[in-house]
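Please fill in the sequence for the structure shown.

STRUCTURE ENCODING:
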């Protein structure tokens, strides 16, 4: 009889390979395949890949249970295994049940059952692994029979841990129909689109040097601005009366070498802020106890030096993307690793390189977007969901409180930020900062600092007055925030978004006031940003038939943007169909979402920048 997932014959499967390139490169060794028949309670370890493929293809009724499907499944398909959609990823299921960070979703963290491969091998071959990076140990299979025995134990440990986790997930999802629906209809099918995304996107390699030069120039300009406020390391310079000296060709300050200010040094940033402005740190690092100078903290400060510092850090961060592109190119193809199981909001993350870090509207980010292109005869078709988060909030307010005004703004195509400006009684630019700041838990001080950038100083009192007006003129929004928190508390710290994705907020029950406040902010964040992520995955799945009809392929998914590559002759037709599919009032057929007005226009271009 099928279980809660609809599986009658689950078999756990896992592979061991030299590295992650096995999912797209047949030259990469796949040296072990393990299978654990949960019905017959039988384990098989294959050292011959052809035998493993035969076993897989003979078990046509099986559902293949794997912990990292976006790696194992394409690697096995590439080597002849006929696994179509008959697989189940325990990592995806675990993340649907309780979204966590990447490390927390590993088998050992979820089950505590895994063998530590690196630790075991270091006892056998310490010289071979000394100084080698994490992951190198997977290339040591075959060095000796003793080493190979460790790999077999490791593989069997993985199979048993995955099997145990699968049984636990069966029990969990049998108690939550909404989460089960989201898993089977959205998150599990989306794994196929992750596999498609990881086939890679085309990069204009001829322009990499040019873009790097431009970004370097932007960084240099930011450094010049920064050095008008601070030039040297404030930790090393001391105020001695003797002043500057030159000794052995080195300029010193009372015989102490003058070091350049390091914008990446938290100690130096904190020191200069304290010395120059009398800054009083508001947050200390949990690890070091030193003043925290993260971008989140700095954005609350309205000092000229901080504005220049943030500009420099942003330029430097963009520039660091270039070597990541170079290091991961395969000809003109760049294959970022995408992960739908790495964030508590369930938004996609990526690495090698992390293209999620490319700003969506930043002028400097456009330089990087211009690198992503299409080969001759092909075009990029790119869409960006408009005002996704505010549209979700509008629908929630209308559904729960009968408040239609914000939804009507989107229906009529009016200016949403002017709508809020009229609510707050303040200029449009300030209103935009207040709206997003309020929705996601920023304080009045931070909102004022953000609104003050690049213009006149906005007093905190202006922000406070705007928030007071919000309570009076649009009470549905603050009421919605309170309702979500109360609902989560009543439900043991668990809430669902409208498509059933489950979120767990243990911070709500912390004894620490700060942690409880953070938990309250997360509640609203999850039902808006989390729902946005779930809905965006579903819309991409909904578009699959149209994409296949035109022979197109998904190549980009960043924030609220999605990009496809398509033959030139079909690109505009695909753009038209995708615009209709993503611009919808009915997000999900079985839900009451017919009044959620989503809007996404797709454009055609040769590069990501042109298609924006």
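FILLED IN BY: designer on duty
SEQUENCE:
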């Amino acid at each position: 009889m099928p279980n809660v997932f609809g599986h009658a014959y689950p078999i756990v499967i896992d592979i061991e390979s030299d590295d992650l390139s096995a999912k797209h490169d047949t030259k990469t060794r796949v040296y072990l395949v393990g299978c654990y028949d949960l019905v017959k309670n039988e384990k098989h370890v294959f050292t011959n890949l052809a035998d493993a493929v035969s076993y897989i293809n003979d078990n046509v009724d099986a559902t293949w249970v794997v912990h990292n499907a976006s790696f194992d499944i394409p690697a096995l398909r590439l080597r002849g295994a006929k696994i179509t959609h008959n697989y189940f990823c325990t990592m995806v299921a675990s993340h649907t049940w309780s979204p966590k960070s990447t490390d927390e979703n590993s088998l050992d963290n979820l089950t505590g059952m895994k063998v530590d491969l690196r630790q075991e091998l270091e006892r056998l071959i310490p010289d071979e692994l000394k100084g080698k990076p994490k992951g190198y140990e997977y290339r040591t299979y075959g060095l000796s029979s003793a080493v190979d025995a460790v790999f077999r134990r490791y593989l069997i440990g993985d199979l048993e841990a995955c099997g145990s986790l699968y049984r636990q997930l069966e029990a969990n999802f049998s108690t939550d129909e909404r989460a089960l629906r989201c898993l089977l209809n959205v998150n599990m099918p989306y794994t196929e689109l992750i596999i498609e995304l990881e086939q890679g996107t085309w990069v204009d390699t001829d322009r990499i040097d040019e873009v790097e030069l431009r970004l370097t120039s932007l960084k240099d300009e930011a450094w010049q601005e920064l050095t008008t406020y601070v030039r040297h390391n404030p930790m090393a310079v001391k105020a001695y009366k003797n002043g500057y000296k030159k000794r052995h060709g080195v300029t010193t300050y009372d015989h102490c070498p003058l070091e350049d200010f390091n914008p990446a040094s938290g100690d130096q940033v904190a020191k200069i802020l304290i010395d120059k402005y009398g800054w009083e740190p508001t947050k200390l690092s949990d690890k070091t106890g030193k003043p925290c100078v993260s971008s989140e903290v700095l954005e609350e400060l309205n000092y000229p030096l901080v504005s220049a510092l943030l500009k420099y850090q942003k330029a430097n961060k963009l520039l660091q993307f270039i070597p990541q592109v170079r290091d991961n190119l395969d000809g003109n193809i760049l294959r970022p690793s995408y992960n739908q199981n790495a964030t508590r909001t369930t938004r996609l993350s990526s690495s090698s390189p992390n293209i999620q870090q490319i700003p969506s509207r930043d002028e400097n980010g456009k330089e990087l977007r211009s690198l992503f292109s299409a080969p001759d005869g092909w075009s990029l078709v790119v869409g960006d969901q408009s005002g996704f988060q505010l549209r979700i909030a509008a629908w929630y307010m209308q559904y729960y409180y009968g408040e239609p005004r914000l939804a009507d703004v989107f229906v009529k195509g009016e200016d949403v930020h002017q709508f809020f400006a009229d609510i707050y009684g303040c200029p449009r630019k300030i209103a935009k900062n207040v709206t997003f700041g309020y929705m996601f838990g920023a304080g009045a001080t931070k909102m004022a600092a953000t609104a003050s950038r690049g213009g006149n100083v906005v007093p905190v009192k202006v922000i406070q007055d705007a928030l007071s007006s919000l309570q009076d003129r649009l009470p549905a929004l603050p009421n919605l925030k309170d309702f979500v928190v109360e609902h989560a508390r009543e439900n043991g710290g668990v809430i669902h978004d409208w498509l059933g994705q489950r979120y767990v907020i243990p911070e709500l029950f912390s004894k620490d006031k700060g942690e409880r406040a953070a938990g309250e902010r997360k509640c609203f964040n999850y039902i808006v940003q989390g729902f946005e992520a779930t809905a965006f995955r579903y819309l991409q799945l909904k578009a699959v038939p149209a994409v296949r009809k035109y022979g197109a392929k998904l190549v980009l998914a960043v924030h609220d943007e999605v990009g496809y590559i398509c033959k030139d002759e079909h690109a505009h037709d695909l753009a038209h169909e995708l615009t209709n599919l993503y611009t919808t009032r009915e997000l999900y057929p079985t839900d009451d979402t017919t009044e959620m007005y989503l809007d996404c226009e797709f454009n055609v271009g040769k590069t990501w920048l042109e298609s924006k």
